[in-house]
Amino acid sequence: MNYCNDCGATTHQTIPDGDNRQRHVCSGCETIHYQNPKVIAGVLPTWGDQVLLCRRDIEPRRGYWTMPAGFLENGESSLEGAVRECYEESLATVEACQLLGVFDIPYIDQVYILYRGQLSAAEFAPTAESSEVALFDRTAIPWGELAFPVVEMALDLHFADQRPFSPGHHLVTRPWRPQARG
After folding, report:
1. Is 90 found in the same domain as 121?
2. Which residue of 7, 15, 56, 152 is most buried, as measured by CB atoms within 10 A?
3. CA distances from 127 to 63, 111, 158, 174 (A)
């Protein structure tokens, strides 16, 4: 950041009084500009024993499979964002959503809040963001073609825990390690 969003003066990096991290501080109005992680909200749509995945038609990782997810918008809850992203990426609607997990990925400054929800109907289609949308049972998931490690983590968590659960059941903050595929 080179210029203040408030007054347009130049910024410099310093540790403000009472803080312990370098921040961008305005040389004119002294506004402190905090940079915080991005929040991604998503949902893993289910239909019976199957999960709905989308083949990305946008970068990054175009052509790889993912669950519907994207950046949370101002003014919406994480669940509202997850449901919106599901529709934007697959034209699918979900219901009975419950928290699947919270995934902290500090090395890329992102926090994922992921839900699991039931498809309202087996109706879905590609969109401008997805070239293909399909239901997969566990054995048919294209594990080697998943777009991001967090997608694999969410799928592993979903299939490891098929029993009903309440919101807050899983809060995942451990480093990701791939599961053996048998």
Report:
1. yes
2. 56
3. 13, 25, 25, 33
